[in-house]
Design a protein that fits this description.
Length: about 260
């Protein structure tokens, strides 16, 4: 089948998911439309034709995709439209995140051609999967795109493929609130207000206060702070980090799924 346009959608607080999704999309030579949900949630219905392709990338938070992104995904509708889905996790486990994306897009008229769980540096414990995606990961992402493109070129419609069986559970696991929150070093803050304006949940009401009930520990405020005034720190964090690093130091590799046809 011929793809006339690509729509790629992602939620990327620290820009890593964006990097991976753009790498996937770059291997398709056609017009592209990009939706960065961290900045611009999709609030109105978007309908994609059978000749278009949807690419979705989501980070994994406690084994699920960010709840704040779900509403946007539900506003994207397909008409038996092919889709590529991916989740990005920090070397622990992707649990039910990938199957959750599959369920969301397939309920809205898409058919998943390929799916993948890729590994990136952990956003809270950066010692885990440090500097990933690395060269080996990028090569696997590129191969994933090439193989998916090959499948698309060999089918006439998505009715020619079988539903992919992805690892995960239904009902999904309950996403637990991460007890760790970014903290500020006040003397480094230059009061630029970047953390306030770019927090996706509006959890930062002023430079020095974070609403713990709203914060999803995505790390956006750390990533965008020009003065590096925000970070994870403290006794609780250091204790949790020691155990997490010990339990997740073994390198994991991407898990990739393709539709049969």
């Amino acid at each position: 089948m011929q793809i006339k346009r690509i729509t790629f959608v992602y939620f990327s607080a620290t820009n890593t998911t964006r990097k991976i999704v753009k790498e996937i999309a770059s291997h398709f030579d056609t017009g592209k439309v990009e939706y960065n949900l961290i900045k611009y949630p999709i609030e109105e219905e978007i309908i994609l034709s059978p000749q278009e392709l949807l690419i979705v990338g989501m980070p994994v938070y406690s084994g699920r995709i960010p709840e704040i992104a779900v509403a946007s995904l539900r506003n994207i509708k397909g008409l038996q439209t092919p889709a590529i889905i991916s989740c990005i996790y920090g070397n622990r486990d992707y649990d039910d995140a990938l199957i959750e994306i599959q369920d969301l897009v397939e309920a809205n008229g898409f058919r998943v051609i390929s799916a993948a769980a890729f590994i990136a540096q952990h956003s809270i414990m950066p010692e885990v999967a440090a500097n990933r995606p690395d060269k080996s990961d990028i090569e696997k992402i590129q191969n994933f795109s090439v193989q998916t493109s090959r499948i698309l070129s060999q089918i006439e419609t998505v009715n020619d493929i079988q539903q992919i069986k992805i690892k995960g559970n239904r009902p999904y696991k309950t996403a637990k609130k991460v007890p760790l929150r970014p903290e500020i070093t006040a003397k480094l803050c230059d009061r630029c207000n970047s953390c306030i304006s770019q927090c996706p949940t509006g959890a930062i009401s002023d430079k020095f206060t974070t609403d713990k009930t709203l914060c999803i520990s995505c790390g956006r405020c750390i990533y965008i702070c020009p003065q590096k005034a925000r970070s994870y720190k403290g006794i609780l964090y250091n204790i949790a980090k020691m155990k997490f690093v010990r339990d997740n130091k073994e390198r994991k590799e991407p898990k990739i799924y393709y539709a049969s046809y």
